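Dear colleague,

Following up on yesterday's call, I've attached the two folding results inline so they're easy to grep. Please treat them as preliminary; we haven't cross-checked anything against experimental data yet. The first protein's sequence and C-alpha cells come first.
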Amino acid sequence: EKFDKFIIEGKKKYVGKTGEVYKLVGVECIKRDTVTIASEFQRELIELLMDKSPIIKLRKWVINKRKILFKEEIPKEKIIIYKKLTKSPEAYKGKSGKAYTAPVHVRIAKSLKERKIGGGNKVTLFSSGTIIPYIVIGKEKNGQIQGVHILEYKGNFDRGYYWSNLVYPPLKRLLETIHQNVDWTIYEESY
C-alpha cells in the first residue's frame, strides 16, 4: 500500500494516511481491550502527528489531556476495562507453594459468583470466555489493584492508575517514535 504519511511504531504497529483516510494496524485505539478514553486520546494524537504539529503544541496537548483525566468528570463508559476469563474463576491458581494473586477481573468474577450476583440456574456467566467489564478504583493496602464490576461502580476511579497504565503509555510510545530527542517521561505519573 502507498500512504501520503506514515508512522511506524513497531513491528505490525503502524498508521498510514492517504488523503483523509487512515489505516491503523496494531495500535491500541483499534483494540477491543483498550479503554475508550485512551482510544480517543490516541486518535487525536495520531491526527496531530500526521499534521506535523510542533513539539510545543504536542506538549500542551499532553498537559491538557492529563488535566482532563485528573480533574474532569469522566463518563464511566470511557473508563471500562474489558477482560476475558480464559477459564472458570476457580481454575486460576498459582504454582504449588507460591503465593498467587489472581488478576483483577478474576477476583471480581469470584466475588460476584460468591455473592450470586449475575448468575442464573441454567446459565453460567462466569466460565471461560466470559468478558468481565470493570473499573479500577484504587489499590488495596497490600498493593493489589482494586476494581469493581461496572454495575457496582459508584463514581470514583483511580485516575493515577488509568494515566500511568492505560492512557499515557500508548501516547508516549507514539510521541517517542516521532520525537525521539524529547523527554516525554516528564508527563508520567509514578504509580
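Below is the second protein, in the same order (sequence, then structure):
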Amino acid sequence: SPLGPPLPTCGSAVCTSPFFELFLLLLLFLVPTALQGAQSAPDAVLKSVTSNVVASLKQDKDLADDPARLGDLIESKVLPVFDFSLMTQLALGRTWRTTTASQQDRLTAEFRTMLLRTYSGMLATYRDHTITYKPIRYVPGDTDATVRSEVIKQGSKGLRVDYQLTRMVGGGWKVYDVKLDVQLFPQERGM
C-alpha cells in the first residue's frame, strides 16, 4: 500500500504505560466540551472542561464501568475540540502529501477511532489526580497558544504536558499537538 504498513489497532485492549496513562488522563480532562466563544483564552477553556469532566465522573460513579457511556462522554466532550486532520498531517509528515483525499479521510477517521478507544480505557481508570496549570503567555488575537500543565498521580512524579492549540476560523480553539516531558531513557549518575 502507498501508505506503508496497516495502522496499529488496540481493539478493545488499552495500550498503556505509566506516563502514557497520565498523559491521556490529562488530555482527556483538559479538552473543552465545546469550544467556547472566540474571546475565551485557551487556558480558561481547558480549565473549564477539566472541572466539567471530573464533575461528570464524580457525579455518576458507575460511568467509569460502562464503556458505551464512556464513549458517549468522550464523543460529546473531548473529540469535538481536536483538529484530527491537522494532527494526522503532523503524525504522517511528508507522507500526508502523497496520499489521496480518500486515504487522508480514512487515516483521520482511524486516528480518531484509536483516540476514542484509548481515552475510554484511560477514563475507566481515573482516580483523583492533581492537575495544575502554569501561567500562559497569551495575547487576545493570537492564533496559536501553548497551555502548560502538570498532572500528579498520588505517589508519582509529576508529568508535564504542553498542549498546542490553534484558533479556528470563526473563533474557538482546537488542540493539534500534545508534548510530554518524559525522559524515555534515564541515565545513571556516577557511571
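For the second protein, one point worth flagging: DSSP finds six helices and four strands in the chain.

Best wishes,
A.L.
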